[in-house]
Amino acid sequence: MASDIRIIPVREFYRTDATGKFDKASTRRALQEIAAACVARANHYVLIDTRQADGTALSAADVFELATGLEELGFKRPFKIAIVNQPKDDFDRAAFFEDCATNRGFPTKAFRDFEAAVMWLSAGEPAKP
Fold first, then answer.
1. 32 vs 24: CA distance, rounded Å
2. pTM of this prediction?
3. What CATH number should be reported for the domain holding residue 27?
4. Res 3: pLDDT
5. What distance in Å separates the CA atoms of residue 61 and residue 55, rounded to the nearest whole number?
6. Angle at Cα 120 formed by Cα 115 and Cα 69, nearest 5°?
7. Which domain holds residue 97?
8. CA–CA separation, 98 vs 81, rounded Å?
9. Measured between alpha carbons, how far is 78 from 95 in angstroms, rounded to an integer?
10. How does pLDDT run along the chain (129 residues), one tens digit per residue?
11. pLDDT tens digit string along 49-86?
12. Residue 64 CA to chain centroid, in angstroms?
């Protein structure tokens, strides 16, 4: 089965201000643009690659807000989301995002291995709307 997977490197959406502080509003706008582009192309398989990010600026509250606001950002079901990360501290933001998004009905999984994430996205169909 062929899968059309949109790979989103962290530089496409993660925004900071001039001091390096997480810029929530700009990040949300970037994610809205990405979601709209995916919906326009009927692409519901998304791989978010955050391995190059120093996500330590993201608090647990920031991660929770992004994960629980997926629909508000434009990621409507049947999106299936994989996140590839390499935590830079003791808080695994991708795993927390996975828990929050999954609890709201979005098939989401955190990975350390890029190929494993692609395989998971390619296996089966996303959840039905």
1. 12
2. 0.83
3. 3.40.50
4. 63
5. 13
6. 110
7. 5-122
8. 9
9. 20
10. 446 788 887 778 888 888 888 888 988 999 999 899 888 988 889 999 988 877 677 889 999 999 999 999 998 888 899 999 988 888 999 999 999 999 999 999 999 999 999 999 988 655 444
11. 988 877 677 889 999 999 999 999 998 888 899 999 98
12. 12
Q: In total, how many domains does the chain have?
A: 1
Q: 93, 55 in Cβ contact below 8 A?
A: yes
Tokens representing 12? 């496409």
> Cα–Cα distance between 8 and 5 in angstroms, integer?
9
70 in helix, strand or coil?
Answer: helix
Residues written for the chain? 129
At which residue do the structure tokens 């120093």 appear?
54
For 15, the 3-state DSSP assignment is: coil
